[in-house]
Write a structure and sequence with these properties.
There is one protein chain. The protein is α/β, with parallel strands linked by helices. The protein folds into 2 domains: 206 residues, Class I glutamine amidotransferase (GATase) domain (Rossmann fold, 3-Layer(aba) Sandwich); 103 residues, Arc Repressor Mutant, subunit A, CATH 1.10.10. The protein contains 14 helices and 11 strands. The chain has a 7-stranded mixed sheet, with helices on both faces. A two-stranded antiparallel ribbon has the order 3-4. A two-stranded parallel sheet has the order 8-9. Helix 1 packs parallel to helix 6 and helix 6 packs antiparallel against helix 7. The radius of gyration is 22 Å and the shape is globular.
Length: 323
C-alpha cells in the first residue's frame, strides 16, 4: 500500500488538497470493489504541515493536519500543492524547502501541482531536469530557475522520482496519473469515469496565452519586441530583426534567446498564433482571412503550425473557446 502525504501550508489551494484526497479515497473504494475479499487498498493518505497544526488555505478555510513534517519520515510519495497568486511568500519558508529536499534525498517520490513546482525547484530537485507549472508563472519560474528545463505546454511531467503537474486544476490530472502509475490503468479509468474526468489530457497548450517575456533589462531586445507588436504581419527575417536591434546577428540571437526564452523566429510564430487565437474566438472571419491577417500565406502551413503550438486544430480551438 502506497503511503501518501499531502503538504499543506499557508495560502495553499484547498481544492488542490481536498480534490486529490477524494480521488485517492475513491481509488481505495474501487480497489476493494474490484478485488473483493483481499482487503487491499491503493493507498493511505494524510495531510502534514510544518508544525502539525491547521493552516489557512487560499479561501481562508482551515486545513487540518494529521501530523508535523518532523514526524513524517515514513512516506512513499509527497505531494506539494500550489498557491493562488505569486509564489514568493512560500519560497521564504526555508524549513519546508529543506524538508522537501531531504525527503527526496531519502527516496521519497515528490510531486507538485501548479506553483508547487517552485518549491521543488527551490529544493534543488529539478536542477537540469524537465518541469512544468502554471503557464502564467512561466517567465517568473525561468528567471528564478534558469537551469530547469521548463515546458509549460506539458500538463504532466513524470521524472520517475519526481512529478510536476501544470495549471491550477491539474492536481486532479496528477492524482489520476498517480493512480495509474502506482495502481493500474483499469483502476485509473474506473476512477476517471466516476469523477467524469478526461483521463487522456496530456497538454495545457490550448490554455496557454503567449505574452512574450518582457521582464528583462536588455534594451535592444525590448526594442525589437515592441516593433514586432506592431509589424508581426510583415515578412520578417532574423537578419532584419538583428539590424533593427543594432546588434550583429550572432549576438542578437544569443541575447534574444537569453532575454525571452525563445529563439526569434519561434517567438514570432507564437506571437502570430496568439493573434490568430484571438481572431478565432473574437470574430467570425474565415480561416483564410485569419491566416493572411497574422502574416501567413499558405493555409495548410498555418493549420500545421497552429496544431504544433496549440495542440489542436484552428477549427477545434474556435469550437472549444469561441464566444
Amino acid at each position: 500500500m502506497l503511503n501518501i502525504a499531502v503538504l499543506a501550508y499557508d495560502n495553499c489551494l484547498q481544492s488542490g488538497i481536498a480534490g486529490m484526497l477524494d480521488l485517492f479515497t475513491l481509488a481505495n473504494w474501487e480497489q476493494k470493489r474490484l478485488s473483493p475479499g483481499t482487503g487491499s487498498l491503493f493507498c493511505h493518505t494524510e495531510v502534514v504541515t510544518l508544525e502539525g497544526v491547521a493552516v489557512a488555505s487560499f479561501n481562508r478555510q482551515l486545513v487540518a493536519a494529521n501530523r508535523s513534517v518532523a514526524d513524517c519520515q515514513d512516506i512513499d510519495l509527497l505531494i506539494v500543492p500550489g498557491v493562488m497568486g505569486r509564489p514568493d511568500h512560500m519560497l521564504e519558508q526555508t524549513e519546508l524547502v529543506t524538508w522537501i529536499g531531504a525527503q527526496h534525498q531519502r527516496g521519497t517520490v515528490v510531486a507538485s501541482a501548479c506553483s508547487g513546482a517552485f518549491l521543488l525547484a527551490e529544493a534543488g530537485i529539478l536542477q537540469g531536469r524537465q518541469a512544468t507549472t502554471h503557464w502564467q508563472l512561466g517567465d517568473r519560474f525561468r528567471q528564478r530557475f534558469p537551469k530547469v528545463d521548463l515546458q509549460v505546454d506539458r500538463l504532466i511531467i513524470d521524472g520517475i522520482d519526481y512529478l510536476c503537474a501544470g495549471g491550477t486544476g491539474a492536481h486532479m490530472d496528477l492524482a489520476l496519473h498517480l493512480i495509474e502509475k502506482y495502481g493500474s490503468k483499469s483502476l485509473a479509468k474506473t476512477c476517471a469515469r466516476m469523477m467524469l474526468m478526461d483521463g487522456n489530457r496530456r497538454e495545457q497548450a490550448p490554455f496557454v496565452k503567449f505574452k512574450g517575456s518582457r521582464e528583462h533589462i536588455d534594451a535592444p531586445i525590448h526594442k525589437v519586441q515592441q516593433w514586432l507588436d506592431h509589424y508581426y504581419r510583415e515578412k520578417i527575417s532574423v537578419r532584419g530583426m538583428a539590424k533593427r536591434s543594432g546588434l550583429n546577428e550572432r549576438t542578437f540571437l544569443r541575447r534574444f534567446k537569453k532575454a525571452t526564452g525563445e529563439a526569434p523566429l519561434e517567438y514570432l510564430q507564437k506571437m502570430r498564433i496568439e493573434k490568430a487565437k484571438q481572431l478565432l474566438t473574437g470574430s467570425d472571419q474565415t480561416l483564410e482571412a485569419i491566416t493572411a491577417a497574422v502574416g501567413y500565406v499558405d493555409l495548410s502551413s498555418f493549420r500545421r503550425l497552429f496544431r504544433q503550438i496549440v495542440g489542436i486544430s484552428p477549427t477545434a480551438y474556435r469550437q472549444r473557446f469561441g464566444e
